[in-house]
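=== RUN LOG ===
request id: a7f3
mode: sequence -> structure
chains: 1
length: 215
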Amino acid sequence: MRVERSMHPDWLSNAYLAWDESTREAFFVDSGAPLGPLVEVVEREGLAVAGLLTTHAHHDHVAGDAELRARFGVEGARAAAWAEAIPTPGHSDDHLAFVGDGLCFSGDLLFKDAVGGGDAATIRESVLRLLELPDETRVLPGHSDETTIGRERTENPFVRYWLGAATALDEPCRVAGEEATLLVWSPDYDGKGKALARLADGREAIVGGSRVERL
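=== RESULT ===
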């Protein structure tokens, strides 16, 4: 499979075009980025667009769906012949990862150095499911840079904590003004950081760094 990416300049959300070089069958994966560069690839390579794979229905991932329907007559698809749609809830209930041919379109679940926001236990379960993939699997996330399963296994602060390769920070903090304990801090694609925090009632949540006051 070959893959081309377009990224939104403000949202940093990715849209992808993946195609089989032998059959020339192509699929878009998410649509929340400028589609012109990907349409140019379709035309230049003489590809037949067979469908649109959507990792989840947040606006920054479906903003171009209507444009793709109008141009190519495509509707949403659960998967392609080369890809398995794996339920990966946590960031959203409808979240899917598309996996096949050495690729993992991870949506807003697994990023380079970070994971998606949401219920920590559900995110953890979904991330660990992706970690069953071979280390060389290319991870094509919903935002910012590509990575690999192996790289995230050894470098991602959340993954290292969940696998027991790193200890908790155990720092006092506030999350949206509420007393909490900071367990994990990592970079994030937007430059604001991402945190795993244990709230006062014992719940654990993954939140954007802008909501965390480190004490």
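=== NOTES ===
The chain has two domains: 2-162, 171-214.
The first strand starts at residue 2 and ends at 7.
=== END ===
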